[in-house]
C-alpha cells in the first residue's frame, strides 16, 4: 500500500502543522524505507505507532503486519486517519496523549491484550525522553522499538562512556541501542531546524536490575548527574546526603575513582556502584532493626 503524501493531505484538509505539538511530517520515501527495514515487520506482528499523523507510515505498515494501533493526539489528524483507513480492519485509531495511556491499555483497545508488540514513531522533540521512559519503564515493554528522534537526542542515547547522560544510562538498562540512519531536515514537512536520526532499540528480555530496585537505582544515577562537572565524590555526597568518607568508600569498593565524573561511567560501573550502595543500605537497616 502506497504512503499518502502529507503535504497534499494537509493542503486538501486546510490543516496547518502545530508547532506546539512538534508536528513535522516525514515526506521522504527513503526515510520511510529505512524505518520499515529497521522495524522488520512480519505478518503476525502487532505494532503501536506513536504520532501517526496523516498515515505516511500507517498505511504501508498495515499491509505488512497483523495489527497497527495508531496513536494520534491531534483530533484533526485522527479524523483524517479514520478516513484514510476505512476498510482496513487491522488498523485501530486511538485519539489521545501517548503519555496518558499505558502500553497495556493501548493493546487492549487494539484487541491485542497480552500479545507482544513492536513500537515505532516519529517522536516529538520536546517529549522524546518522556516517551522512551514511558515505554521502557512500563509493562508490557515492546520487543523492538524504532524511533525517529532529533539527531542530538540520538547521539545522547547512543553515547559511550565519556559522554554518557541520564538518558543513555536509562536506555541501556532496558535495551541495546543502535543507530540506523541519519535523516536530513528536508525529509520532513515543515522541515525542522535540525537533522534527525532513526534509532533502533532491541529490548532486553529483562532489565539489568530487578523491577523493584529501579527507583533506587535511578535515584543513584540522578544524584551522580545532578552536579554538572562535579566529581562523583561531590555529586553523590550532595545528591545522596552521605558523608564524603562514605561516598569515597562506596566508590572504591566498586572500583571507581572518586575523582571521576558521572558521564565517564559505563552502565556496568553504575550497576556495580548500585550493588555496593544497596548492600550498604540493607546492612544499615538491618543493624537498626536489631537495636
What does this molecule look like?
With 291 residues, the protein is of the alpha/beta class. It folds into two domains: 6-203, 3-Layer(aba) Sandwich (Rossmann fold), CATH 3.40.50.150; 211-289, Helicase, Ruva Protein, domain 3 (Orthogonal Bundle). It is built from twelve helices and nine strands. It has helices at 6-13, 29-39, 58-62, 75-84, 103-109, 128-137, 151-158, 166-174, 214-225, 232-240, 244-253, 267-289; strands at residues 25-26, 46-50, 67-72, 91-95, 118-122, 144-150, 175-183, 188-189, 196-203. It has a seven-stranded mixed β-sheet with strand order 4-3-2-5-6-9-7, with helices on both faces. Helix 4 (75-84) links the parallel strand 3 and strand 4 (91-95). Helix 9 (214-225) crosses helix 12 (267-289). The radius of gyration is 22 Å and the shape is elongated.
